[in-house]
Amino acid sequence: MPLTIRKIESIKPGSKTITLIDGAGLQLVISNTGSRGWRLRYTRPNGKRNMMSLGSYPEVTLAEAREKRTDARRLLSQGIDPVERRKEEKREQQFSQQNTFRALAHEWHATMAPRWKANSKRSKESIRSLENYIFPTVGDKPIETIKPLEWLELLKRLEHAGKLEQRRKVYSFCRDIYRFAVITGRASHNPLTDLSGAFTPHKQKSFPHVSQEELPELVEAIESYHNPLVRIGLKLLLMTALRPGEMRQARWDEIDLERAIWSIPAERMKMGRAHRVPLPSQAVAELRRLHVMTGQYGLLFPGRNDPTKPLSDAAFGVALKRMGYQGRHVPHGCRHVVATGLKELGYPGEWIEMQLSHKLPDIQGVYTHAEHMAPEQRPAMMQFWADQLFGTTSV
User: Fold this and answer.
1) Catalytically annotated residue among 270, 276, 322, 328
2) Which of 45, 72, 76, 283 can pair with 279 through a Cys bridge, CB separation 3.0 to 4.6 Å?
């Protein structure tokens, strides 16, 4: 006879284990200590007998135990062992708990940090952006459970707040985390790859910079500036197209004045790859003058109060403001000036992009690694450019 709640409640523990039968393999086992547990006896798909626990009574009621029996028998009818299915579900649950977006993001960051050099701006910026904009919403969710619509809503929030550049960066970081998860077998697909078309394109504003017609006037103003370190720095920006940060943090062991080459290590470059800069004769002459002033320090441009640290990042900008170029030209604008000037002179785009330490677009960026450092290529190009700016100079 099938069990009833009255019958279950009426049976008291004895000196031996008591087994009450409900039918179709379902049993309630009452131990001599009084504990009561549901068991299901069944035949595995391979023909062997087995028994599985369905929980304790009364936490699992009679009705719930029968439901579990029905579920188990349904699996058996499909050739699935319910115990093996339970183990698989437990493994999947543990896998999900271990592979939250936050956990994978930190693992991705730890993998990438050596390439960025852990103290780099990109390394700090990536994890800070994730902590501010992503982790509070989806950080603790298993990565496979986050829906594309959730990502769309989350990133659209940044867009609606006017944080287009931040949205672009966050999207890039999250997309790369998914790529890492797919490669390492923790995600089956990347839901962010198809979302890019749903966002408003972000056009980054160019830095203020003078026109080619205004350039001679800027050069004259720089030549007349009173601070020799800043004056030389600004001239070098115009002759090398380096980023201001790369210039300020430069070290003397990067400079080969005899070969007229400036070799910047990967950890100091925005793109994370070493960069060689040809030095025109005018730049070599300025560097020799600078060496007299700062050669005893490791840095080309040591700080005024602490020579072990580089010149303030405001120094070049403040100088341009004092020259009357506030809002018209900033240090980073020198790169625009150089790029435009070289393009108007007809030099190949690949040479110009390499001088700027830019990655070439599309497939070129994958397969093209030429530095164009042959004497007749970038060195000749930058020498001609320096001649246009400052006239010919012998070293």
Assistant:
1) 270
2) 283
